[in-house]
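Problem 12. The chain below contains 248 residues. Write out its predicted structure in token notation.
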Amino acid sequence: MQKKKSLGQHFLRSLSYLNAIADAADIKAGDTVLEVGPGEGTLTAVLLERGARVIAVEKDSRLIPVLKEKFTGKKFELIEGDALEFDPSGYGLVASGYKVVGNIPYYITGALLKKFLSGDAQPSTLVFLIQKEVAERIARSKKESILSLSVKAYGEPKYVKTVPRGAFAPAPNVDSAILLVANVSRQNFTNKQHEEKFFELVKTGFGQKRKLLKSNLKQLLGEKTAVLGTLRAEEVPLAEWLELALER
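Solution.
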């Protein structure tokens, strides 16, 4: 099937990489898996073969009849719609009671990570196939960013495996990578207020990258910024941001 450019579709058909995604999510019999953008159903088939119950959200209406026919009689539920508008709790999915996987469109990577990591019904594990550069920024870079801190605040990101562009049909212009976010929770936050203050500080701290962090946060933290010395936002690890949010 011809891809829809507007949906950023690049179908993965390599069984070894599909299994690598399932391995990263540690898919076992009895797991409930929410799959974002099943496409042609190649990853879906691997998940079902491992004994998982799969709830799939697909936006491309052309693929709906294909997927329904392919997985008739399986532990498979298909929802036509936008994953960004999908409500996990509406389908009986509760915090830590399911896993999220998907070969997702590059252009909504940040939005999907935010939706599932910061939502009320957080998955226990999230595994997305995303642009390699973005996966490196989140899990490998020595410099922090709003995106990397936002992911680390809710779980433990790991760069699992590079997936070359040639493994897709049609091939994208860049390589991809499997990103695992394990042990998803809110354990880093003492309460909702702490969570809100953390993100306010991070966004403000990265607001003007050329300035020292203490200058960016002066209005929010006052004299407490003295401990930051000459640090810039990208040099401050998660633990210190969390501590600053508690002190505010």
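Discussion. Residues 5-182 form a domain with the Rossmann fold fold (CATH 3.40.50.150). Students who got a different answer should revisit the alignment rule from Section 12.3.
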